[in-house]
Amino acid sequence: MNRIMIGALGMLAAALLTPNGYAQCGGARLGHTSMFIRPGNALLLPAAFMSDWDTPGIVGFWHQQLISDGTSGPSKGTVVDDDLAQWHSDNTEIQNTKLRTPISGNFCLGVWEQTGPDTFRLNHFPQTFDPTGTVYVGTAQLQEEITVSPDRKTYSGTFTLDQYDPTGTTVLAHLQGKVKGTRITARSTIADVL
To answer: What is the 3-state secondary structure (H, E, C) of the chain?
Structure first.
């Protein structure tokens, strides 16, 4: 009986005195420090099964459309951008638009932040060129405010898009409207991305 008690106390002491050690069950990430218990120098994670619901709802692959509200530029209801977007867990984002040719720059990059349980803000900077792809027109700034649906299959929100001249001092065009997205999964079909 004494050997069992000494062994159990030894294991407990080792767990409590091991710096930066942790115990986990499932796919927990160390970034979730609020879930850790810190007895002394040890770092313990209560046993729990982690799931995809632990990642922000925006992370993943989406078919996205920007639709003009008709305030400026194209008439209301006009799709001004139709793209495939990937929102990454490191708060970066990339879009591949089908409304611009590759030679004029159809890939662009952005960053995002979570603003609420299901809400997100995107700040995105497309580099723009003329249709020949040889003349730099300037940088645009696309900003989106998005709410992801509870089932994480769609999102909706608003956008503004400002096209600047090459110096970044003059706004050449301003668009605004609604944004909508549909998640693309491993089971999506071609109809889901068109």
So the answer is: CHHHHHHHHHHHHHHHHCCCCCCCCCCCCCCCHHHCECCCCCCECCCCCCCHHHCCCCCEEEEEEEEECCCCCCCCCCEEEEEEEEECCCCEEEEEECCCCHHHCCEEEEEEEECCCCEEEEEEECEEECCCCCCEEEEEEEEEEEEECCCCCEEEEEEEEEEECCCCCCEEEEEEEEEEEEEECCCCCHHHHC
Q: Is the overall model pTM greater than 0.85, yes or no?
A: no
Question: Which residue is listed with tokens 């994480």?
Answer: 152
pLDDT in tens, 80-118: 999 999 999 999 999 998 887 787 778 889 999 999 999
